[in-house]
Amino acid sequence: MIELAGYGGLFLTALGAATIVPMQSEAVLVGLILSGRYEVWLLVAVASLGNILGSLVNWCLGRFIERFRDRPWFPVSEKALARAEGWYRRYGKYSLLGSWLPIIGDPITLVAGILREPLPLFLLLVTIAKLGRYIVLALATTGVM
Fold first, then answer.
1. Lowest mean pLDDT among 30-34, 47-51, 83-87, 111-115
2. What's the structural domain count of the chain?
3. Which position among 1, 18, 98, 139 has the lowest Cβ density within 10 Å, counted as fewest Cβ atoms?
4. Are 122 and 28 in contact (CB under 8 A)?
5. Rounded to an integer, what distance in angstroms lies between the CA atom of residue 53 and that of residue 62?
6. SS3 of 73, please?
7. Burial of 108 by CB count in 10 Å (0-12 exposed, 13-18 middle, 19+ buried)?
8. Does residue 43 register a pLDDT over 90?
9. How many degrees, rounded to 5, is the angle at CA 116 between CA 86 and CA 121?
């Protein structure tokens, strides 16, 4: 039961961390790996799935609520959104490979929705970025790297 709670907590943290909510899924992943009570490959899969779904939430927000960007409750500041839009316009769809980056990564996924990036390509690029980050983190934590 404790293992299930660990995986579930990691999933929720990774999901929240990929949205605009300030959370650190990397610390949770490293802690669970170091505990030695969990399968590393399953932790990476759970964290990746949660983080990818969180990015999908951002894409949907961008897709459907962009017209509300001037409202005070809009989930991204105008400054962060402008920076992400500039990044996205400069590097195009491949900027989604930076969706794992702190501060700018989440707004990039929101901008992808605003700019109507096709969902299959969005998911492919975000999956590469998010899964790659967690694999590297897991390898570094286990001493393989």
1. 83-87
2. 1
3. 1
4. no
5. 14
6. coil
7. buried
8. yes
9. 95
